[in-house]
């Protein structure tokens, strides 16, 4: 797994950001949902590389998980250019909503990552999922 800063990997795969909001009340959960709903157009307009967001609500445990997709790891920094997002990040602390975040980046071909072995090198060597059979590994 790479430990390089995201900005040093501009064209390496994509990125997935998972943010966990541990809410005290169900009203707080609705507030987090509403904030995401209101911010999505601004982020889409001003953060290049933003592909989408999905919220997962766990009402029983009062947890909200936000999963955002980015076209490249370096593009995640684009969220800092969205003034509305910067202002909204202060709201959970005021409401005593605890947050945690993890960023997952592409570390190469999934077969090599899951089952070991040396991954194929370069984008030309990745198998095309639309082909009937994959090329033989090198």
Q: Overview of this structure, please?
A:
- Strand 2 and strand 3 form a beta hairpin.
- The model has no long low-confidence stretch (mean pLDDT 82).
- The chain is α+β, with helices and mostly antiparallel strands and 138 residues long.
- The protein has two domains: 100 residues, Alpha-Beta Plaits (2-Layer Sandwich), CATH 3.30.70; 30 residues, no CATH class.
- 27% of the residues lie in helices and 24% in strands.
- A four-stranded antiparallel sheet has the order 2-3-1-4, with helices on one face.
Report how far the terminal alpha carbons are from each other.
Answer: 22 Å
CATH topology of the largest domain: Alpha-Beta Plaits
**Number of DSSP strands?**
4
User: What proportion of the residues is helical, as a percent range?
Assistant: 25-40%
Low-confidence stretches: none
Element-by-element helix/strand order: EHEEHHEH
| CATH C-level label of the largest domain | Alpha Beta
CATH architecture of the largest domain: 2-Layer Sandwich
Query: Order of strands in the sheet with the most strands?
Result: 2-3-1-4
In terms of quaternary structure, the protein is single chain
Count structural domains. 2
């Amino acid at each position: 797994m790479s430990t390089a800063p995201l900005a040093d990997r501009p064209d390496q795969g994509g990125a997935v950001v998972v943010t966990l909001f541990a809410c005290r009340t169900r009203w707080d959960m609705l507030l987090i949902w509403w904030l995401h709903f209101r911010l999505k157009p601004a982020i889409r307009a001003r953060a290049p590389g933003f592909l989408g967001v999905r919220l997962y609500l766990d009402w029983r445990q009062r947890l909200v998980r936000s999963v955002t997709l980015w076209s490249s790891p370096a593009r995640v920094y684009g969220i800092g250019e969205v003034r509305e997002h910067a202002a909204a990040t202060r709201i959970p602390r005021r409401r005593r909503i605890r947050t945690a975040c993890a960023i997952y980046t592409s570390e190469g071909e999934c077969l090599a990552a899951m089952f070991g072995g040396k991954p194929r090198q370069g984008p030309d060597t990745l198998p095309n999922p639309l082909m009937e059979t994959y090329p033989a590994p090198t």
